Amino acid sequence: MKEFIINTDEIANLISSLPADKWDILAPAKDGKSFDYVLSSDKPIINSEAPPSKISFKEYFFPKSETLFYYKREANEISLTEPKFAEKKLLVLAAKPCDAASLPILSKVFNWDYKDEFFNKRVNNSVIIGLSCAYSDESCFCTSVGLDRNNTKGSDIFLTPFNDKQYVLSVVSDKGDSFVKEFLPNLTEFTGTKETKEFIDNKPFDYKKTKDWIAANFENKIWAETGEVCIGCAQCAFVCPTCHCFDIVDENCDLNCGRRIKNWDACQFGVFTKHASGHNPRNSQEKRYRQRVSHKFDYYYEKFGEVLCTGCGRCTRGCPAGIDIGEIVFSISNQ
Amino acid sequence: MNIYKPELVEIKDIIEETPDIRTLRLQFKNPETQKAFAFKAGQFAEYSVFGEGECTFCIASSPTRPEFLECSFKMAGKVTKAMSKLNIGDTMGLRGPYGNHFPIEDMKGKNIVFIAGGIGMAPVRCIIWNVLDLKDQFKDISIIYGARTVADLVYKNELEDWKKMAGVKTVVTVDPGGETPDWNGEVGFVPSIVEKVSPKAENTVAIICGPPIMIKFTMPVLKKLGFKDDDIITTLENRMKCGLGKCGRCNIGSVYVCKDGPVFTYTQMQQLPDEF
Questions:
Q1: Cβ neighbours of B89 in A, within 8 Å
Q2: What's residue A221's pLDDT?
Q3: Which residues of B touch A287 (CB under 8 A)?
């Protein structure tokens, strides 16, 4: 892996020098007390110690609502037109490892057979600069799902703080290499040793053991216990970097035109699996919560070889009912 | 390629099967698409009414009759309600074919028992015609079909055609109380009619589709008759949106019904978590 030294001025220069008509920049910024990924931020927070944003950056690759095509009726003829796709490239600056890793994980489901060009175009059009993470709280558990503070999965370029003014820039992917050659051609090569903090997960679990336990415990009281607490609001799915369930609906502009859109949806909603006949395979919150945990730690791993979770802890931090998924999985893996 | 964008199809004919079930005969607007469209019995499609949305049904016509496609549906939700108001000549959208199919190659040289209940006849009708159009490649054919009432029977004319065919035993039944004074078929629930017909299990494949309750009570009958789990084939009808293995709606465990199904053997069904 090629490594360079980059100082904060050079990062500021990079942001101001990227042609605005060709590039959007997405970076964490402070909005009141919380952090969020903000588009074209002129004050990005490149701070390893910043907490994760409220919502992951998923929506920039898999939007909350995305037009699939437009339909128009004239006389009795219907015509369909493709949505225009933004030509601009996206630079994501200072992505947390637990956000960057979500892209290759999501790519599995969006490409395992039919290819979702909406997701792929957005990913191909982006360059992800990951940032080593020095934050942790009781909701974090990235190390238990095979990641860590310095994991470069999903990043094209990765920054590790070296001192107050300097970062070590690692080139991770070919896309990252091209970007550095084009926009950061004068960096000094780094040959020293990086010092990084270790993350100690206070409730570590073994995701392989968790998978086996879930596969053997479709019927278990833990699902009823959690299902009783869960209010089915699905905030966990919406803030999650890897939840990807969606709905497809039509939205009319008038009687003769409209668009078909793909909207975020979630397995925690009662109507999600409900048949038109009224039959509902997952007709209780107990079954729906079991589905969420099982899909993340058993089914997705079984099918795609990836845990559908990056341990970012957002679902736990935001849960209005106080459900802690890390705690649940920790207790599962220790049974 | 935009995998979510349907092709345009025109409604060429409409058959009112029952008070709430309709069959639409569809043809692609683009003759090239019609020519290129290939599917196998058991596969499904996503049908659109623009402005209302998409709905999932099996393709109810046989691949041996490729000049058109048919779907049969029961008026139940938003899209099927809209579909029940469409007329001949109207345009719809269609994406597909999706999913796996009945193992027709493996069924050749065997006896086939078709068991269907209600609208569950739609996927079975597709494979029935597929088998009947290649009849010399199969042995004895039995068709056992039941609905709640005489009025609820679908494909009424075709049931009569099948009754007249040599080498095909067709038994039609209605639930007790669902018969009319001139009804000359059976009266009784599908499981008991299967027991009465008692098809032999040796070298036989059973294809069964219908309401979950019918399947639940027919399985023990088939087991008693000696059918092996691998030789009992059914389809699962989970709610779907994309049909492409992405939207996460039809999953049962790690199985995507839209990709790994909708056709499953009874052996495969028993390996799934009990969530369908």
A1: 76
A2: 92
A3: 275
